[in-house]
Specification:
Length: 185
């Protein structure tokens, strides 16, 4: 499937977390993406809140594009109901394809994989390899400690404050999506 509208790539956990609030947030964001006419690009798995957001988008008739590396397609259980599912040969290719397909990014709560993806996008933006907005959906203050760490990096002279300011942070998916889409180029 060729994505015809703007696509937003959502990074999120391959697990669902201990609080149902995370699943609820993924569902809400999925429904909102369709309402605002965005397609979803995601990691292509059916597990965790990755699967939840893809299901939520498809439930409302929205477009979903999944990209999963071959070696993970059984471990993470590839999402069989996603028609546009690209199987790639490495994690690096997965991330590259996700980045090139999307106009912007949102990180939901997740683990190391999610952290890796959101940090990489921030690095690429910092190096001006891309210029695409990234939002953090700060459900239940999930990213508060990360934001504190970034403040520490700025205070101790390891991070340009402008780089930190490129992150859009909100606990409200609607607000996050509005600010994010206002920054598309
Ligand atoms: P996690 O947030 O750890 O549940 O992972 C979310 C997604 O990121 C999953 O689809 C993982 O395959 C992927 N992932 C996990 N570890 C890495 C990594 N080191 N680099 C890139 N992606 C990863």
């Amino acid at each position: 499937m060729n994505l015809t509208k703007s696509a937003i790539c959502v990074f999120c956990g391959s697990r669902s977390g201990t609080d149902p609030i995370y699943t609820k947030a993924a569902q809400e964001l999925g429904h909102l993406l369709v309402e605002k006419k965005f397609d979803l690009v995601f990691g292509g798995a059916s597990c965790g809140i990755m699967g939840t957001i893809a299901d939520a988008v498809m439930e409302k008739g929205g477009g979903v594009s999944g990209i999963i590396p071959d070696f993970l397609s059984t471990k993470e259980v590839k999402h069989d109901r996603v028609k546009d599912l690209m199987i790639v040969s490495s994690m690096h290719e997965r991330k590259y394809r996700m980045y090139e397909k999307s106009s912007g990014f949102i990180a939901l709560p997740g683990g190391i994989g999610t952290l890796d993806e959101l940090v990489e996008i921030t690095t690429w933006n910092q190096l001006k390899l891309i210029s695409k907005p990234l939002g953090l959906l700060n459900v239940k203050g999930y990213f508060d400690h990360l934001l504190k760490q970034l403040e520490r990096m700025v205070d101790d002279g390891f991070l340009d404050p402008q780089t930190k300011e490129t992150l859009i942070v909100s606990k409200d998916p609607k607000e996050l999506l509005e600010i994010l889409s206002g920054r598309f180029i």
